[in-house]
Amino acid sequence: MCGDYVVHSRCALGKDVWDGEDLENVPEEDNKLQDVTSFDIISDGVILHFLHDHHLRLKVSILYDENKFCQACVLPIVEGNFYSCMECDFIFHETCPNSCRILLHALHPHQLTLEHVEYDSCRFMCNACERFCGGFIYGCHIRECKFYLDVRCASIYEPFNYKYHEHSMFLASDPKEELLCQVCKTICHKQLNCIKCDFIVCIKCATLPEKVRYKHDKHFLRVLFGEELCKGDWCEVCERNLRATDTKVFYWCNECGTTFHIECLFGGDLIYVKPGQTLKFFDRDAEILGKSNLSRPLCMNPDCKNPCQVKILKTYNDIVCSVKCGNQVFY
Question: Looking at residue 34, what is its pLDDT?
Fold first, then answer.
């Protein structure tokens, strides 16, 4: 029994909740892996994660390095302690090893298992935020449904406290209903709704990192959208006018007054993939390259032609700045 947990019969039979199997008179099986931690404690400050072969030691984060990525969430370590491999370059945020091995999530009726994407290949797109993921994912392999969640989207639970809204948020009861995100002003495919007002935020925006750093700014940045956009005129990195782009959400330094495109800080739709991995476009594999401090090649998409700021997609002699541009150039 689950105490006072109650759900409408119509809601409980939704395809996103129920897998269609009648389990009446079928005894419930306990999943032993559900209570098993993802790592073993070897000694004080040293762990062994089940998805890595070497021991990891807890260290104190002192200097921010934008080129060092957590292997689970694929975000830079901006503050706090982190785990570092004692034999290779593998690193974790201190909290990322705590992701459970088996997950039951409200976005999918089947059990999900924590997996590590192959380092040299990025084949998975998160079904919640619709971004490619080159780190840790939760995958479902029942009946070949091919459902995947990255570890950031998998961490969403109800009620969800979105930092930029005063009320608690809940996952949409009707996932087929496409509504407008109040942050990025685009149509949502997976969203969180406020039941007290009309505020809606897509999971892509809801999972943007709250604490962000830029190498030339000692302060943390915060998300900027809506009426607050008047605070910034241009992006500090690419120096483009913010109102001349289609982007509706940015990062903003409250202390310095500087504003940044998300793609200029992280790489836009390449935010959760790592340099050295590849993405497949039709019959071509594009290599993901890291940011170069010496040059900013121009994107070869004729509708873009902007300097590639962070991560670059390259195949043969073609270079683009994003997956969106790659879909137009790599054919």
Answer: 56
